[in-house]
C-alpha cells in the first residue's frame, strides 16, 4: 500500500514536469507563419507569394530572401514604421510588398515573371521573444510555347511521308500537340529538343500517303500548353507537285 501511494506521488510529480515542458513548447508556437508553399506562374504575368503571420508577440521585421547556394540572397526587408527596403535590382524593379503598413500581411507581388525567378523563396518574421520564424515557398515558372506550322513541298507518291509539321517552341513544361485530320489514315512522329534553360521545343510531324485525294483536305494542329487555352493552326494539305 505504502509503495503504491509513493509511486502515485512520483508519477504526479512527473506529470507536473511534463505539463510544464508542454507549456514551454506551446509557448514557442505563439507565432504562426502561414504560406502557400507551392506556386506556379506563367512567364510574363504577375504572381503573388503569400506569407502571413499570426501572433500576439511584437513583430519587428519582415524579410524576403531567395534561396541560393551557399548563401541566400536578401531581396527585401521591412521594419515596423519604415518604408520597405528593396535590396537587389530584381527586387527594386519587379517586387512590391502588398501589405499596407501592417505586418500581419507579408505578401509580395512579383511583376512580369521571368524564368530566372524560378526557385525557392524564404519569408521570415522577426518576433519578440520567439525570434525569427521562416517559411519556404517554391515558385515554378511555366513558359507558353511559340507555335509555328510548316508544309513541306512534296511529290505525289505511294509511300507515307511527312506532309505537315507543327512546332511548339521553347515551352516549359513541353506542350501537348495533337492533330485533327480528315478521314484519311495518318501517323505522327514527335521529336523534342531540350534547351539549356529547361524549355522544350517539340515538333510533331504528320505522316500520310500523299496521294491526289489528299489535295484540299484540312488538318488542324492543336497545341495545348499546360496553362492557358489551346493554340494552333489549320493547314490546307495538298499543295503538291505532280
Ligand atoms: C515517323 O512515322 C512514319 C510513319 O509511321 C515512319 O515511317 C517513320 O519512319 C517515322 N520516322 C521517324 C523518324 O521515327
Ligand atoms: C530558352 O532557350 C531557348 C533556346 O535557346 C530560347 O529560344 C528561349 O527564348 C528561351 N526561353 C526563355 C524563357 O528564356
Ligand atoms: C478545308 O477548309 C476550307 C476553309 O476553311 C473549306 O472551305 C474546305 O471545305 C475544307 N475542306 C474539307 C475537305 O473539309
From TrEMBL:
Q: How does it sit in the membrane?
A: Single-pass membrane protein
Question: What InterPro entries is this protein classified in?
Answer: CD80_C2-set (IPR013162), Ig-like_dom (IPR007110), Ig-like_dom_sf (IPR036179), Ig-like_fold (IPR013783), Ig_sub (IPR003599), Ig_V-set (IPR013106), Nectin/Nectin-like (IPR051427)
Give the source's domain of life in one word.
Eukaryota
Tell me the keywords, alphabetical order: Cell adhesion, Disulfide bond, Glycoprotein, Membrane, Repeat, Signal, Transmembrane, Transmembrane helix
Signal peptide positions on this chain:
1-29
Which segments cross the bilayer?
Answer: none
Q: Name one GO cellular component term.
A: membrane
**Residues annotated as domain Ig-like:** 29-140
GO biological process, alphabetically ordered: heterophilic cell-cell adhesion via plasma membrane cell adhesion molecules; homophilic cell adhesion via plasma membrane adhesion molecules
Report the subcellular localization. Answer: Membrane
Keyword Protease among record annotations: no
Q: What is the first-listed, main subcellular location in coarse terms?
A: membrane
Spell out the PROSITE patterns in the cross-references. Answer: IG_LIKE (PS50835)
Q: What family does this chain come from, according to its entry?
A: Belongs to the nectin family.
> What is the recorded name of this protein?
Ig-like domain-containing protein
Amino acid at each position: 500500500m505504502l509503495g503504491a501511494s509513493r509511486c502515485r506521488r512520483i508519477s504526479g510529480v512527473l506529470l507536473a514536469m511534463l505539463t510544464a515542458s508542454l507549456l514551454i513548447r506551446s509557448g514557442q508556437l505563439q507565432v504562426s507563419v502561414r504560406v502557400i508553399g507551392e506556386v506556379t506562374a506563367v512567364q510574363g504575368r504577375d504572381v503573388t507569394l503569400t506569407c502571413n503571420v499570426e501572433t500576439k508577440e511584437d513583430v519587428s521585421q519582415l524579410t524576403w530572401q531567395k534561396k541560393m547556394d551557399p548563401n541566400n540572397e536578401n531581396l527585401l526587408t521591412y521594419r515596423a514604421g519604415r518604408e520597405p527596403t528593396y535590396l537587389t535590382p530584381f527586387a527594386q524593379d519587379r517586387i512590391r510588398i502588398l501589405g499596407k503598413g501592417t505586418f500581419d500581411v507579408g505578401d509580395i507581388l512579383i511583376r512580369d515573371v521571368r524564368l530566372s525567378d524560378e526557385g525557392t523563396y524564404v519569408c521570415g518574421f522577426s518576433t519578440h521573444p520567439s525570434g525569427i520564424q521562416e517559411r519556404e515557398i517554391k515558385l515554378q515558372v511555366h513558359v507558353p510555347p511559340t507555335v509555328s506550322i510548316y508544309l513541306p513541298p512534296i511529290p505525289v507518291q505511294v509511300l507515307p511521308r511527312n506532309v505537315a509539321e507543327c512546332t511548339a517552341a521553347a515551352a516549359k513544361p513541353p506542350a501537348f500537340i495533337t492533330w485533327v485530320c480528315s478521314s484519311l489514315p495518318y501517323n505522327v512522329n514527335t521529336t523534342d529538343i531540350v534547351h539549356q534553360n529547361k524549355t522544350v521545343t517539340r515538333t510533331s510531324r504528320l505522316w500520310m500517303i500523299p496521294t491526289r485525294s489528299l489535295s484540299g483536305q484540312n488538318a488542324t494542329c492543336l497545341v495545348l500548353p499546360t496553362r492557358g487555352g489551346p493554340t494552333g493552326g489549320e493547314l490546307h494539305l495538298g499543295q503538291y507537285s505532280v
